[in-house]
Please model this.
Amino acid sequence: MEHATSLGDKPPKILIITTIASSYTGANTVGQARAQYAPNTYILRVPDPVMFPEDFYLRCFDKGFAGIIIMSSGSDCPYEGAYGRLSARVGRTYLKMKEKGIPTTRLKLTTVCTVCKHAFLKEIDDMQNHLKEKAA
Amino acid sequence: MSGAMDEAKVGVYVCHCGGNISDVVDVKAVAAELGKHPQVAISKEFAFMCSDAGQKLVIEDIKSGKINRVVVAACSPALHELTFRKALQRADLNPYLYEHVNIREQVSWVHKGDHDAATRKATSLTRAGVEKILRQDRLESIHVGAAKRVLIVGGGPAGLKAALDSAARGLKVTLVEKSGRLGGHLHEFDTVYPGGQSASELLGKLLSAVSANPAITVVLGAEVKTWDGFVGNFKAVLSTGDAVNAGAVIMATGYRHTAPSAGEYRFGKDDRVITLPALIEQMKAAPRGPLTRGGRAVRSVAFIHCVGSRQIEGVHAPQEDGKVNDYCSRVCCTAALHTINALKERQSDLAIYDLYRDIRTYGRGHEAIYEQASKNGVLFFRFTEEAQPEIRESSVVVKDVLTWNQEVELPADLVVLVTGVKPGEVAELTAMMKLPTGSDRFLQEAHPKLRPVEVANNGFFLAGACQAPMDLVESAAAAGAAASKVAAVLSKDFITLDPYVARVDAEKCTGCEACLPECAYTGALFMNGSKKAEVNAALCKGCGACVAVCEPRALDLAGWSLDQMEAMVDAMASEVAP
Model:
């Protein structure tokens, strides 16, 4: 299975997993501000990314996503203990990525709130730049 | 779960949103591309899907039997997801067979410069919506019984107002107050702005109304000691031993005054330096005649704003939890100016200097208070956070931004620090009730605009300054809104909840119990007599933590199943060129 970030002529797609309580609204706030970012970004809305098993992320890479940013609610998470569980899950995903030879930098766990415009844009920029460097 | 896929006929509707979407996204191309999907029976674009005409389009297509699932690609679901769910209901279709795709805030508004890419992305996202709804069950709302009693925590003005409004709507109320008396901070004031009413008269009216209302039970000197249950059926035991069974909770735990840190503006070292609440208390105790300090008449007073608010890390001493109060307390500017005007009324020759970083007199009628202070001869000086006023032996020195940083020395027999507010001491209570707080430590609403007095936790509502700095008018409004929301929730004998909770496919469950330690909510997930996992839908919060560890996929989150998420990812990953 190929896990390179270069996907031929296709743009390196980035999956952004957002939470209903925080980062999905944060993404809307970015839109309301008419801030611009690259269109190779795909936002998935979920109650909380803690629902995803480790293999979900590996599957996303297999399907062609070059990078995944998990924008959690962090300390604003309305679900008790969910952030700690998510962090542990992402930690275990990193181990599986290493086993498969996938750079762990292609998966980023971060926190974005309902009004975190700059953080939202910065995380995308960072991942874009990282993927460009890897592809170069 | 996807057994109905074969008979699924999806209607796709792509909204122009005037030109908000269609100026960037080629909506005709998106609709045409989605029309090629084998299970999309109808694919249309329309100028304003949220309009009556747009909704009618959907309803007619459903009623004609052409479609039985709906995807609308438009604005954020926060705005119109409910609108369309209701439209489906009006067409006698299960309202959860609906998916709302956001191609405005997350496509057209953020990709203005690349119309082709925006169109491709809108197509992929809409296709993902179709794949999700194809795997959606006919979910049913959850109904739980409701106790027609509201527990109100905090007996300040917001708690009193919420109690009266709740009782007026036919609910029983238990009002729990930690201290030995009702009224909270209203006891501190002589008069209240903007109207200048007597605080004691206002409080007297509230207390009389509460004590005369048989639906309201007041428990003084009590705290919530144990907590259990869920919306419709919360169970609290108070420190007095009283047990309360309530359908909903209004938090009205109020605020505390911030105290200047040791030595800040020589507070605690120089007895000329006092806080605004201390001055108000002194004025209330001696309501007439000139202000005195240490037996001598006060001839000049300097007020210094933003003490304990808008603090900057590294500049100001942190609060007890190690964090600075970086927020604006909002209410202190008007409170200071209201007090200044009261001082001027009783002592017109008193020299008053108002030293501020910014003046925020934001409420209705507040600007008039500011203007009145100006007319009363108060002199205003503006300083920056880098150059704070210096307290000297009998004066205050300020670098005045308004006169190009000229250093001005002002006589001051009295220095009043306009202190801010911070939330009440409720950390233990909020931990027990599992309520979210913001980075400012105030209780956090579910959404500042769309659900301003609701907490994300079902059945909890916010009244007054437990949520953010608020004045009396705002607190009363929030309390009224919270009471109204509670009445809506408890108006029926049962409560309707969204069905987005974990569910178990008993045939797939191996009884491995791996899910149990993942669940943070007591009683929400358990093993039943058949050694299968079982979910109490009323207690489950729908986080999905249990789903991730269920290898046979017996557990899933209704409406957000892993199958649905994977199908969405596949659709997003596939290239679809319109």
